[in-house]
Amino acid sequence: MLSISVKEFLYWKKKQLSKGGDHQSFAVLLDCIGGISTFDLNLLSINPKETLYLKKNLEHLESIWNDHLSNSSPIQYLCGIAFWRDLKLKVTDKVLIPRPETELIIDIVFKIFGKQSQKLTFAELGTGSGAISIALALAYPLWDGIATDIDQDALDIAIKNFINCSKQTNLKFYCGYWWTPFESFKGKLDLAISNPPYIPKDTYEKLPKEVKNFEPEIALLGGEDGLKHIREIIQKAPLFLKEKGWLILENHFDQGEKVKQLLIESKFKSVEIVNDLSGVGRFTIGRYK
Hints:
Elements: E1 2-5, H1 6-18, H2 23-34, H3 38-44, E2 51-54, H4 58-71, H5 75-79, E3 81-84, E4 87-90, H6 104-113, E5 121-125, H7 131-139, E6 144-149, H8 152-165, E7 171-175, E8 189-194, H9 201-204, H10 209-212, H11 228-240, E9 241-250, H12 256-265, E10 268-275, E11 281-288
Parallel strand pairs: 5-6, 5-8, 6-7, 8-9
Antiparallel strand pairs: 1-2, 3-4, 9-11, 10-11
Helix pairs in contact: 2-4
């Protein structure tokens, strides 16, 4: 541990933020690499005469911050960590950085099933870092979960995250394309969830460089209209869901009505578009028959 006065640290922090970037990204850097949590940061101004202990020196932290600013490299990839709900997840450029808006999927599940529930089986298609499935496995220890991804490298990261976050064994991982790993689960799923690639091709070309240049294209690009993967997931979902089983999808901000129609065409009931905290129709849900 390296010691530094709080006064010196706060001066250095102010200098780094004056270069650009946002406070949230800087907080991730300090927590993951420096060993200073947001809670610690909030206490610093109260005790400016105290001594602060860092895991890494200021020069090392500054070099990472400069890399983030000069190359637009996502701070989560530079630190190898992303915070999501109450999880601390390992991330690399093999997986999409889990977004705060996606956290609402867990709240949607809570609303449908309650926070205490009997044993059931859920699946997540395209798990990436494992965030959604791990959060559900922890929230519902009686549930059995299956998380899949087409990329074995992504799946390896999700497996490590589950091991790091939990001693539970109620989540299994399979490699494969969408419904392919579920042949033995036909008619057995109570709930299926997916945050699939849904960015339309023309929109993808205009994405900010911190997304387009660093995050995996396979996790973002959803074909010409962005609905290529969503269509396939919806069309095949009835084969795998139980009667009255739920499907929850994340979609692009302007796709809700189209996704809703696709669900209705596939005989889903109770179809609803759910807004995120910004009032955007970010999720579309439905119950099969």
